[in-house]
Amino acid sequence: MPQGPSHSRPTSVTYVSTRRNLSNDERVAAYQILLERSIGGVLPNGNCGAKKVRSVIDIKMAIKAVPHEGRQTLCSTAVLSGMPKIAILRHMKEAHGLAARTSHLKPLLTDNMLERLWFAVSFVQPGLRRNHSFINMYKNVHVDEKWFFITKVKRRFYLYDDEEMTERATKSKKFITKVMFLAAVARPRYDPHKKQMFDCKIVIWPFVEEEAAVRSSKNRPKGTLELTFQSVNADVYQDMVMDEVVPAIQVKMPRG
Known about the structure:
InterPro entries: RNaseH_sf. It is a single chain. This protein is 28% helix and 17% strand. By secondary structure, the protein is α+β, with helices and mostly antiparallel strands. Among the domains are: 52-102; 137-252, no CATH class. The strands form four sheets. Strands 3-4-7 form a three-stranded antiparallel beta sheet, with helices on one face. Helix 2 (56-64) packs across helix 3 (74-81). The longest helix has 19 residues, at 234-252. The protein is elongated, with a radius of gyration of 45 Å. The N and C termini lie far apart (145 Å).
């Protein structure tokens, strides 16, 4: 006869726990260790997770090895330094030294401009805590050139109703005569020899010269001396300083 389906009995499995219960002495020792580490009865937060693979110094040295041109973006900085981008972001947050800074393009100084810059710096007297100050400049005279136009394109006059405006005409506003003057000033102070205040003004000289008229006109005959505007170059400028500026300084500058 056919036999029916056999029903197997479940086999009981016994799980043996690998945990070991601490003894009373071990519990007291662990309690004592935790109590020593606690601050005011509160245990400090411990470190969890994997240890850091890269230290702050390693990341800093790797980034500093990359030239500034390669550090314009975080992606380029990460690629050239060999550091992950997330590591650089965490480094910026933890170290507080690496940050994005803006660079502005500055004019290139030639040798002449650099020499003038150091000449200006020589008048600065260094002080403590960057409290720099200029020297008193009592022994210095400032010489500078000034340009003046003979007339202006637009001028204002006060006239009556029965008066006509004087006509002013020129070929173009680019042809307005421009005259150069040389001015010398110094710092004002009391002059003990003259017993009065020195007003800082030495004198101002125009760059003009006298020339004889080449041909006659209704205003003057031929050969009349006229003041004409002088073309200024290095030689003319030097002659003006030596012949006019230096003697005027010796006469008007306070002594002592």
